[in-house]
Amino acid sequence: MSKNNSLVVLTEGAIIVAAAQALSFVPHDLGVSSIQVEYGLIPMAIYALRRGVKPGLMAGFVWGILDLILKGFSSGGFLNPLQGLVEYPLAFAAVGLVGIGSLQVKSRIKDNKSALGLIIMYSALGFLVKYFLHFLAGGIYWGAYAPKTMNPWIYSLVINGGSFIANMIMMLVLLVVLSHVFKRFIIAKD
């Protein structure tokens, strides 16, 4: 990769991180529960598909640190350093795993074939790993906040599983709506 191309990838990553963080300030709780739609997952998934797994992981990691600083510390989302590491930089970096499918998706798009199934599959992988990390942290660190009559692990599964499902539904809807512009979003003009 040339220095110029590296700078373009880095600049795109910074813009995507800023967009993802800005979108995190849009209200996103579903009802009275802690199930959340995380709008920043969409630009992050597109970036990972566009640039690959390594830039996707790095952008997600930076987004996690930024979210920890701007929201985690002030909202009570930070309990201790290990929990903070798992739920912010590591969980957010996991979204970059969507980039594992980058080459396959780009190939399908360039061949004028549908990449919808691949995008759904790789998005599900990245989102699932993110919410699995939140599930683990929920069972270990947030168990005291579960309703008294509910097992903390079940509570964490309901909240984080619900968030995973809500975010996959959001991704599916946007994929269907934006299917005609995949090529512009995912194929980079370097």
From TrEMBL:
Transmembrane segments: 85-103, 115-133, 153-178
Keywords, ordered alphabetically: Membrane, Transmembrane, Transmembrane helix
Membrane listed as a keyword: yes
Statement: the UniProt record of this protein carries the keyword Transmembrane: yes
GO cellular component, one term: plasma membrane
NCBIfam families: ECF_ThiT_YuaJ
Protein name: Energy-coupled thiamine transporter ThiT
Organism listed in the record: Companilactobacillus allii
Taxonomic placement: Bacteria, Bacillati, Bacillota, Bacilli, Lactobacillales
